[in-house]
Amino acid sequence: MDGKMHRAEVDKEAVFLNKWGRRISVRSLDRNFSKYLLASGLSSNVTPHTIRHTIATHWLEKGMDLKTIQTLLGHSSLVTTTIYTRVSTSLKKEVYDKAHPSSKKVGKR
């Protein structure tokens, strides 16, 4: 096979498909995103990357481990995924409070 899909083949690994069952192009994704962003009335500063970053941060805050997040985001290196650990101050405080008995407030026993 020459690397091109036949008409009947569908890309089963892709999340977003076009009407022919092939991966949607980056340009098409950007065009559709811009159209729906405008219609939503949300800030024009929102990008697909912003949403990706937000979802990954929420996963981390809800307790998902970094290795799973790395796999879901398709990062080849765990170092790339660790950027999300720098984002959440509330998560850091919560983990610290759970892990260190000395952080407990007096009278909260």
Describe this structure as you would to a colleague.
The chain is an all-alpha fold. It folds into two domains: 1-44, no CATH class; 47-103, no CATH class. It is 48% helix and 0% strand. The chain is built from five helices and no strands. The chain has helices at residues 26-40, 48-61, 66-73, 78-81, 89-99. The longest helix has 15 residues, at 26-40. The model has no long low-confidence stretch (mean pLDDT 80).
Topology (elements, then pairings):
Elements: H1 26-40, H2 48-61, H3 66-73, H4 78-81, H5 89-99
Primary descriptors:
single chain; 109 residues; mainly alpha; 5 helices; elongated
Entry summary:
With 109 residues, this protein is mainly α.
How many structural domains does the protein architecture include?
Answer: 2
Mean pLDDT: 80
Rg from C-alpha positions? Answer: 20 Å
Secondary-structure class: mainly alpha
- The helix content, as a percent range, equals 40-55%
Outline type: elongated
Largest sheet: number of strands, sense, barrel closure: none
The unreliable regions are none
User: Could you tell me the number of beta strands?
Assistant: 0
